[in-house]
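Possible regression after last week's pipeline update?

I re-ran a chain I had predicted before the update to compare outputs. Posting the input and the new output here so someone can diff against the archived version. Not blocking, just want to make sure nothing changed silently.
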Amino acid sequence: MNNAEYYHFADFTLGNYRRLLGLAREKYPFCTYQDFEPDRRFLIWRHDVDYSPRAARMMAQIEAEEEVRATYFVLLHSEYYNLLDQEATACIREILALGHDVGLHFDCHYYKINNFEQLAAMLQREQRILTEIYGQEPRAFSFHNPTPAILAFSDWQYAGLINAYADYFRTQVGYCSDSNGYWRFRRLENVLQEEKEARLQVLTHPEVWSETVQSPKERIYRCIDAQAHRLKISYDQLLKKAGRDIVDWD
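New output (post-update):
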């Protein structure tokens, strides 16, 4: 079996994403971290936006068309996008306008957090920043690249924010993730078809889905290259607008 078959490359097209949403909607009532009931049947559909707000906006549009609501966790310390630039800000505002929620994707590694007090203080800080930018206060957070030490922070809430990795979600709710561009534990198609769990949390990363069938590496490189291309265009436009020369070798 080759990698394309073993890792289900064909699963990760936007067309199949739309189909999976339809299947999920047939099987489960969609909820968010704000409105689910812990003892009732539900599906929470979550995104960790690691690389591309533009890809996140595309997914949010598909979800709105399919009449489902998701939560988008955005990262203040991404190496790949800047939440304060005009395009990223516009993308996240459009996601909110489509009726989705925006939460905080929190990077403990950035702060070298090792105790509750640090975690609570930095969560509050980043919550305030997101609220100021988007005019809507995040109600939940997810850890970015969690280690076993980070997952030890397993309380229901920190700094008033629901913890997507709380003990409840890890022990009472089924989980399916596409981290790194493949199904890390279980294939979503199978999870939805088998319908074994009454409660389910699905994590997807917008950048690992594409129009055509590609490998996980190709999908991530596509996002990185697209961002580089946009920066080059922005540079050229800036100089032209200022009436300056764009000087190269010829």
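Follow-up from reviewer: compared with the archived run. Residues 216-241 form the longest helix (26 residues). Marking as no regression found.
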